[in-house]
Amino acid sequence: MDWFLGDAKEINETQKKMLEKQTALLERVDELNKCIDSKIEKSIQDVIIRVSDSSNETKFKIKRRRFIAIILLCSVLSALIGVELTLFLIK
Questions:
Q1: Which residue ranges does UniProt annotate as crossing the membrane (predicted)?
Q2: What does the alpha-carbon distance between residue 4 and residue 14 come to, in Å, rounded to a whole number?
């Protein structure tokens, strides 16, 4: 019976050591998961910022093009009105 108790104690000690190792490994895995989550979150934020910047830049270019188009249209219309007034005054 003593050999059985000795084996049981040895098994218990081995299980305790394994549990300690597993606990340490689980803590390390948890740290790694937090690190990975942090990096993923940072990457997502970087992508969102780049997309936002790109969108803002595109909107600015569109507004600029519209402004230039309006100025050109007004210039052409002013020239046409000037020509028409000149022709009207000449007659």
A1: 67-90
A2: 15
Tens digits of residue pLDDT in 41-66: 999 999 999 999 999 899 999 999 99
Tell the residue number behind the tokens 């997309």, with chain if given: 51
The pLDDT value recorded for residue 37 is 92
CA distances for 65 relative to 11, 55, 61, 68, angstroms: 79, 15, 6, 5
- Rounded CA-CA distance 38/30 in Å is 12
Q: Note the pTM of the prediction, 2 decimals.
A: 0.52
Residue 2: Cβ-neighbour burial (10 angstroms; 0-12, 13-18, 19+): exposed
Alpha carbons 32 and 10: distance in angstroms, whole number: 33
Long-range pairs of 42-48 with CB within 8 A, sequence gap ≥ 24: none
